[in-house]
Amino acid sequence: MTRLLLFVLGAAALAWASWPALRQPRSHGTTRFFAWICMLALVLVNYPQWETDPFSPRQIASWLLLFSSPVLAVQAYRLLRTQGQPQARRASDDALLPFERTSQLVTSGIFRYIRHPMYTALIFLAW
Fold it and tell me: What secondary structure letter does DSSP report for 50?
């Protein structure tokens, strides 16, 4: 019951944060919202297993992927904000988050090795 309540509260918070994008159903922001909902469900469903046999090789690999996921996402976010050079003409596009309104291709940092580090972070989180 607690996990269901956490899911409902988390989904409501994600809907609030994604509201501008959800008003444009054909935007990628709508898909992003459903991806976030699925990640929330994955975390809530799998959380009880995190404490089961925490030092097994499988669980250690899982922890490494889980902790590397936000590292990739934060590095990508930082580089997009600083080097992506957001365009003012895209400021009215509510379906995009501010750091997504870029005009420069970022090729340094983590982007030198991974073209889509945020997608990679999502895959690591799911694994």
Answer: G
